[in-house]
User: Fold this.
Amino acid sequence: MYRYEVIIYWSTEDDAFVAEVPELPGCLAHGDTYEAALARAQEAIGLWIDTAAEFADRIPEPKGRRLQLA
Assistant:
């Protein structure tokens, strides 16, 4: 499991939960449930990192922000 911050919210437009990874530009995923969106975000993070490594792009270190729920 990766330790990047993941922000999950409901999108009325997409009719799905959307998971964004702010530290990795363009890294997004979605799912019918919160859990599915989070699982797909973890997959997307892995793909993002693999692609960055393939092209010798910089891979940011996770900032380790504290999770806050509202």
Summary: The first helix runs from residue 34 to 54.
